[in-house]
Amino acid sequence: MTYPFSAVVGMDDMRLALLLNAVSPAVGGVLVRGEKGTAKSTTVRALAAVLPPVAVVPGCRFACDPAAPDPACPDGPHEPTAGGPARSARLVELPVGASEDRVVGSLDLERALTEGVKAFEPGLLAAAHRGVLYVDEVNLLHDHLVDLLLDAAAMGTAYVEREGVSVRHAARFLLVGTMNPEEGELRPQLLDRFGLTVEVAAPRDPAQRAEVVRRRFASDADPAGFATTWATEETALADRIADARARLPHVVLSDAALQQVTAVCAAFDVDGLRADLVTARAAIAHAAWCGRDEVTEDDVRVAARLALPHRRRRNPFDAPGLDEDLLDSTLADSRPDDGPDDDGPDDDGPEDDDRGSDGPGDDGGTPPPPSGTPDGPAPEGRDGHDGPESAGEPTTSPRGEGGGSADAAPAPDRAAVAPSDPFRARRLEVPGIGAGASGRRSRARSERGRVVGSTRPAGTVTKLHLTGTVLAAAPHQRARGRTGPGLRIAREDLRQAVLEGREGNLVLFVVDASGSMGSRARMGAVKGAILSLLLDAYQRRDKVGLVTFRGAAAEVALPPTWSVEAAAARLAELPTGGRTPLAAGLIEAQQVLRRERIRDPQRRPLLVVVTDGRATGARGGAALTEARTAAALLAATGTAAVVVDCESGPVRLGLAATLGTALGAQTLRLDELAADSLAATVRGARAA
Ligand SMILES: [Zn+2]
After folding, report:
1. Which residues have a catalytic role annotated?
2. The model scores a pTM over 0.85
């Protein structure tokens, strides 16, 4: 029993964004951003119940519309018929860890080879056709699945191909994603593909919070009774959606309203024309939702607030949201009646008023854009502007500071030293072959990658190894009575390809922030190096964590997270000075790793210890011995580690290298971390 949509308290923007998409799927989906515990998922799941029912061809697993069946339907062909039985619209959830087969469907290669039958098992995209596809934690979805999803959403079809056997079917759905930005941002390319975005937060008003709790209690105590209480509101909402859908094709977007749309998009400096299209569609949907036949300034305003925040050119570390004052002034300036005093490029003067575009009895006007037609492929990625991954090399520090070499830059006079500019870091790798989630760091047995051999399948064959299969079948041909051409292949001959790709890891930084780390300029260089490794971790889809130690103790500055932004922020504000409790730092790291091994056992950790190795503490020389003991304990757990030696100055003690030996780690100097340092590679190879 889902929670009734009309019983959701607050979340006005989110509910409106979902409803506008329900009215006009052409708006292009919703991305909901917000912290945990804000009932994002409850609200999304509640939507399906108020969507108009869907008529489907009986027995078709691809939800063909009886009036216009998909001519390419794998379950077809179907004869077109008027009407037909209707079922409620579906909400399909795509789990973040889903396999490719689960998403797009799977072709049964065994049956294709042994029986010559093209057997296709539909996936989630087929299930979501003409309904809602919901991805919780969409920011954690693997790149490869994201691409599949975007392709399907853009084309309105899903396409599966395995070893030359292929299937295509219709897949048009309302895409809804939810995410917690604390756990990592979404790739800019994906962000742009969502029609609307909304930010949600728990209500501040105590009375509203009380109402949330009251309704939640009532719903938990008696779900069916609660649903009955809200049945009238739910029916009214469903009727209003159905009415708005019927009205949608008749809503007029006048030239004046269109000019307001384009003026607002220009004012917010958005890329391409996608923003204008989405804003116009959302404005039309909002007019229909409000029972109007013509788009007003209010519709444009609402649409812009939902369609533009994620399309502004911005640094990934900028705050989200939209400057509403700018929105209001742009709307006012682009108003056709009182525009003479402005200097906007779209203002054609007051004579426009006589074109009949704002007359009350206007029945001609601009036809609305066709609904239901998906957009063509997105414009190219906005290279270089947004995510650190969109460019080959990271260019800016998150604080927007730095510039010039770190040692030359004057240090600002405050507790935390700003990092110097990041560089492209070399790949630090966990040795051996893991089995963790896909990424781009260490070698792993995976679902994707290059073929390294064949094996007998444990279950069904997902990736056929053709040579292995033929070789297995060959010795049996005479016994199976083969006389002519064509192999006789039996099920037991089939061989599964063994693939090797790369996995993402947990990169845990253990950073020495003590006074011995040298001058402020030196600390800036150290932070710049860590920032470079953080950006590298982002591109390789690692989780990151940060343990720091200075003064009396170590602390977990950031528990393992997907949010490189959060790590960069903690790093930038990291104060330095005091003694060097190196042993405490290593012990803390070991505890973080132990907890994380329980939470995410497949993910192999890589420890990056950034220090000059000069352990000091209240107990004098014992600190060094303690540090080596802690290092040996960590080494005994088999954790892969790298020590970044930060020692500088004319007299060098080489303590970091000693620590590296105790950890069983490779030791690199700060200047050996850059990917383009040839000397680094050579020395690194020797040290490994
Ligand atoms: Zn069908």
Report:
1. 274
2. no
Question: Alpha-carbon distance 123 to 103, whole Å?
Answer: 5
Provide the H-helix boundaries in 609-667. 622-636, 655-663
d(CA 287, CA 295): 5
pLDDT in tens, 408-450: 333 333 467 777 777 787 888 888 888 777 777 888 887 777 7
- Rounded to 5 degrees, φ, ψ at 281 are -65, -40
Tokens of 41: 């998922």
Vertex 449 angle, CA 447 and 450, to 5°: 125
CA distance 451 to 426: 26
25 Cα–ligand 1 center, Å: 21
Backbone phi and psi for residue 491, each to the nearest 5 degrees, phi listed first: -55, -40
Helix (H, G, I), strand (E, B) or coil at 516: helix
From CA 454, how far away is CA 457, in angstroms rounded?
A: 9
SS3 199: strand
pLDDT in tens, 2-29: 899 999 988 889 999 999 999 998 898 9
CA of 63 to the centre of ligand 1 (A): 6
Dump pLDDT digits (tens) for 197-239.
999 988 888 998 899 999 999 999 999 999 999 999 999 999 9
pLDDT score of 488 more than 60:
yes
| 3 state SS of 640 | strand
CA-CA distance, 402 to 413, in Å (whole number)? 14
* Distance between Cα 572 and ligand 1 center (Å): 56
Reference 611, options 543, 535, 665, 536; nearest CA is 665
Which pair of structure tokens corresponds to residue 24?
């006009």
